[in-house]
Amino acid sequence: MTRIRLFNSIRWRFLLIQILSILLTALFLLLGNLLANYIMQFNSINAVLIWVIHNIGSRPTMTVSGIILYLFFYVVLSRPTVRYTKEIADTLEDMANGKFHEPVEVKTPNELGLIASQANRVAEELNDYLREINYGLQEIAKGHFQYDIPVKPDHDLGEIAKSINQMSEQLHHSIQEERNAEKTKNDLITGVSHDLRTPLTSILGFLELIEKDRYFDEVELRYYIGIAYEKSVTLKKLIDDLFEYTRINNGMPLDIKRLDMNDFFQQLAEEFVPNLESAGVSCRVHAPDHPVIIRADGDHLVRAYENLISNAIRYGSAGKRIDIYIQEQDSQVVIQVVNYGDPIPERDLPFIFDRFYRADKSRSKQTGGGTGLGLAITKSIIEVHGGSISVSSNKRQTCFETILPIT
Fold first, then answer.
1. Other CB atoms within 10 Å distance of the CB of residue 363
2. Which end of the chain is more exposed for a tag (fewer CB within 10 A), N or C?
3. Residue 304, number of CB atoms within 10 A of its CB
4. Residue 186: which region, alpha, beta or left (left: phi > 0; alpha: psi -120 to 50)?
5. Which residues pair with 398 in a beta bridge?
6. For residue 112, is pLDDT > 70?
7. Burial 256-266 (b: 16+ CB within 10 A, else e)
8. DSSP code string of 245-270
9. Measured distance CA(383)–CA(259) in Å, rounded
């Protein structure tokens, strides 16, 4: 509507110029006619007029003179408007070329002045917003990825600012992931180095005693050999767990098949009977009367739940029993492995699934300990199946809960 009003206003302005040009032309023709009549009274100077009237005619002369006068007045009256319009057009062309810092002078309070004022306002807003975007890009270039460029709604440059913010956020996320991956790699190397060095140092120490014959009799020799053998077994288990962990996290292929979780846990509990009897612990499986079918890699799930049951036996033997609950909820199967031994300290719960993390280091030594990778491997296996794992612990019980999709 504003454009239509401006167009109509300019059109009426030029119509007014035409009317004024006609009026001025008529006025000058009238004055010219009066002047010609006055000159005709003087014989000494009227020869030219008489010749024009006799040879050309007064009417043609008046017509040609009127046209010339009209064009002259129209050009003279419209020239400021045309010049001002050209100035505005040149400024708009500069804006189209990306130059917003040269405003057009507002000369008149009329519609053209309004156009100039509006053009200046638009140029100023665009210039200010481009400065904000440019400043934001400079901040992002300095590494300040948290800086957000203000986004103006319903604005084309606002969409650009929004895209830049999204790009900055994604770039920041990618850099953080890269840093986390580097830290993970360094932590892994540090953890592996420490856990490999400890049993290896013991093995080398006892082998050195044997190699230098620093033992009294065969009994002491066998004792040294036994310790070296146990440390070698620990070392092999750590290497196996480390290999399994890296293989899982590097995208292991899954052999997906139909799996009945009721039969799965019944069979798994039977395989742990010797360990359960040795620890004086019983294991009960609480499952629905009907089969609970999921699609999963059975061999990898065995490894995951072996770790949970082994931990329950190792650290929950004081409770004398382990309960395994299998429940269906919507399109998921919820599995809880519960023991009733000493609780896990609350400060350790957030880190229980981290690599090489042992919640109770003194208790680990007493119970034979582990590599610190068992729960990390379990978490990776569950997650690669599209599931999740969590832990809760209090004075009454410790519960490891896994959730797997049924389909």
1. 14
2. N
3. 24
4. alpha
5. 339, 393
6. no
7. eeebbbbebbe
8. HHHHHTT-----EEEEHHHHHHHHHH
9. 17
Amino acid at 334: V
Contact 130, 101 (CB under 8 A): no
Residue 216 reports pLDDT greater than 60: yes
Segment holding 294, helix H or strand E: strand 293-296
Ranges of H-type helices in 97-155: 111-141
Relative to beta strand 282-286, strand 321-329 is parallel
Sign of the dihedral through C-alpha 218, 223, 226, 227: negative
| 186-204 b/e (C-beta count within 10 Å ≥ 16 → b) | eebeebbeebeeebeebbe
Q: Report the candidate in 401, 380, 397 with the shortest Cα–Cα distance to residue 184.
A: 380
Q: Report percent pLDDT > 70 for the chain.
A: 73
Bridge partners of 294? 259
Place 364 in a pLDDT band, splitting at 50, 70 and 90: very low
| Residue entry with tokens 């070296």 | 228
Residue 403 has pLDDT above 90, yes or no: yes
Distance separating alpha carbons of residues 26 and 32, to the nearest angstrom = 10
Q: Are strands 388-393 and 257-260 parallel, antiparallel or unpaired?
A: unpaired
Q: How many CA atoms lie within 13 A of 24 on its CB side?
A: 17
Q: Are 326 and 288 in contact (CB under 8 A)?
A: yes
Q: pLDDT tier at 200 (50, 70, 90 boundaries)?
A: confident
